[in-house]
Amino acid sequence: MSTAVEEHVETSASGKAGIPMMTITVRIRRYNPEVDAAPHWVDYQVTADPTARILDSLHKIKWEQDGSLTFRRSCAHGVCGSDAMRINGKNRLACKALVKDLNPTSAITVEPIQGLPVLKDLVVDMEPFFQAYRDVKPFLIAHGNEPTRERIQSQKDRDRFDDTTKCILCAACTTSCPVFWTDGQYFGPAAIVNAHRFIFDSRDDGANERLEILNDREGVWRCRTTFNCTEACPRGIQITQAIAEVKRALITRRVI
């Protein structure tokens, strides 16, 4: 057998860097409103590299076993946030969740994120989530004449809201919140995070307007500080801290 053929055989039996491949069970919560009366679980056997992502296994299932499986994905690198789903009971991005970190000796469960209507399989209706995002006016509001040069900002002022600029709108935080599950009117952590990003921006003139929006009974005061959102965030944003800072700004009427 030639060296090239030997290398091919070894690669087929092993994953990256010679790591043995393994057969895993991926248990997916399926639902097709056109034919199903209720959601149900379906098991799939997949050969996977332990260092591979759950997204890779979902691709294998869709491309090789069941083309009807429906889920969202785009960049596959943890930037777009479109493949947020509930994996082994926790909100994660499928493109960042590795097989080896999910106890692959047992069935790995995959289901849609909670609190939003399921359209099909792992795809949920994101419109309520994005409506809350739009409601907090997540854009720069500047009064007065159009500037003749850049709006200069010090590094210290930029650092003040740096953490909340990292949000990728995956909805993992909002759909991990028990208040959001039970109260369809609550703005949710992601909307508050994106309001924070502009409330504390020294170039913005709309802080008071956003604070009044979040002072609503379904705004920041509905937060119960369970830290689910912070734990679920794939970008490591200190969400609970950001919500606390917005609450403090409402009480003191000071944005510092």
Automatic annotation (TrEMBL):
It catalyses: a quinone + succinate = fumarate + a quinol. It is an enzyme of class 1 (oxidoreductase). Pathway: Carbohydrate metabolism; tricarboxylic acid cycle. Its EC number is 1.3.5.1. GO terms for molecular function: 2 iron, 2 sulfur cluster binding; 3 iron, 4 sulfur cluster binding; 4 iron, 4 sulfur cluster binding; electron transfer activity; metal ion binding; succinate dehydrogenase (quinone) activity. Belongs to the succinate dehydrogenase/fumarate reductase iron-sulfur protein family. This is Succinate dehydrogenase iron-sulfur subunit.
